[in-house]
Amino acid sequence: xxxxxxxxxxxxxxxxxxxxxxxxxxxxxxxxxxxxxxxxxxxxxxxxxxxxxxxxxxxxxxxxxxxxxxxxxxxxxxxxxxxxxxxxxxxxxxxxxxxxxxxxxxxxxxxxxxxxxxxxxxxxxxxxxxxxxxxxxxxxxxxxxxxxxxxxxxxxxxxxxxxxxxxxxxxxxxxxxxxxxxxxxxxxxxxxxxxxxxxxxxxxxxxxxxxxxxxxxxxxxx
Length: 222
Fold this sequence. Notes:
The chain has one domain. The chain is an all-alpha fold. 68% of the residues lie in helices and 0% in strands.
């Protein structure tokens, strides 16, 4: 028992920080210019969000679902699984989230974002913009190469955070928040174990989105 108590989280880490960030570099070079398409789709979500339309919710759900499915296959299974044996199980969760978004948004039309009109709306929009435009700057701002950037739609962290921000401000089933929030907690622990300076960014912003979602739900029920 005493031997187990001597272990720290870093003892269970399967890769070094250098290997982890190098993985993103290899991945980004391999999928180029998909990043441009992902950025365009992120801006499309933002435009659809700010302009109310009868079909906008379905279009947004389709884009989010495509992003989650892409990350599941192209990053988690094809790349992350080479350094982390648990990645294949995480990929199942990402694929499941894609299916849930498609079911709730495309089939049942239950994801209906509306232009920001209150604290939850503006807060959710701020979280989404953070994931789309601020979170990718972590790599260059922290001294890593631009090739290691993480973008919405092709990398897991900004995809999960952006989804939480949108769902927090939308009229949507709250169970759609579970898997994105779970991933944000997992990545927070991973980055904390690696002593990454931005380790708390993703889980803290995700927590903010969850608080906004709860507040919005209670306000709607009042």
